[in-house]
Amino acid sequence: MSEMNQKPLVEIRDLKKYFDINVGMFKTLPLKAVDGVSFDIYRGETVGLVGESGCGKTTVGRTLLHLYTPTSGQIIYDGKEIKTPADIHDFRKKATMVFQDPYSSLNPRMTVSDIIAEPLDIHKMYSSPEERRQKVLELMEHVGLNSEHASRYAHEFSGGQRQRIGIARSLAVNPEFIVCDEPVSALDVSIQAQVINMFGELQDKLGLTYLFIAHDLLVVRHISSRIAVMYLGKIVELTSAAEIYERPLHPYSKALMSAVPMPDPKIARESHRIPLSGDIPSPLHAPSGCPFRTRCAYACERCAMEVPEFREIEKDHFVACHRVEEIN
Ligand SMILES: Nc1ncnc2c1ncn2[C@@H]1O[C@H](COP(=O)(O)OP(=O)(O)O)[C@@H](O)[C@H]1O
Ligand code: SF4
Ligand SMILES: [Mg+2]
User: Which ligand is nearest to the CA of 313?
Assistant: First the structure.
């Protein structure tokens, strides 16, 4: 991949985000929502981040944007670590987020125009009301919204239209990098593809870089250059989108992949179906050793003793599993 020869735009190093949870009088336990995540995102690419609900995807997105203060670890953007309040303030103009739920993330009592212009107002990014108006219209055009809608209220729109309003708002500060947090999960299946295509077109037109979060592997398949699979606060596998679909190596990725309907019956027959049994454990009581061991058909004694290292098994293919060579 050509991007991979460059320097990464975003470098995430051993990122942890723990939440203190009250579990009784004066007693708290750390909920390890993100527990030592490291990966890079190259300029112009889309990294898909997938995993079951509750595995920590949103927390990765929010922490890497400093919407949550990291418990530990580093976030390096364009070669510079984001640390001080001044770094974070500048970073907010370059990196932004599109939220999952277009119903609750937009104020229903604001006009479309004011919603989209709010980041422009905050960052004082215009010199006259006319310039503000022009910028809003340009942003609406980018996302395929009719300019006549500018003075209407968010609650008058459908889910798909609202998500377009949310995207226009995220684009207002001219960001380079966007965390897209399940931006189509709340939408009708019939319009999901349209909105995903729009993300692709915007990426080409504006040179954007995405971290694209989804719980559904099918959603990220076409938009992602690489895919990271997350389980209970950790990334268990990271490789190119093609590789993760054709040759997943981690037992959890294999199980996720075998749940994806295969349009080609030949591939469907050849792929060994691995059912994923049981629920994801609570991150308050994560298993010792490998986090996946309570659901893994290959778990052995070592898996309970040692946390598997996230290592490069083949070029650009990272997996965290003690037995990966044996079982593939
Ligand atoms: N603000 C918070 N306070 C306490 N626990 C949280 C908070 N946000 C998320 N969590 C917990 O962290 C874990 C990961 O959540 P989340 O990042 O939302 O997962 P995902 O986006 O993959 O569904 C879950 O167990 C969730 O309950
Ligand atoms: S380390 Fe052990 S329990 Fe974890 S995925 Fe590999 S084989 Fe399964
Ligand atoms: Mg989430």
Answer: 2
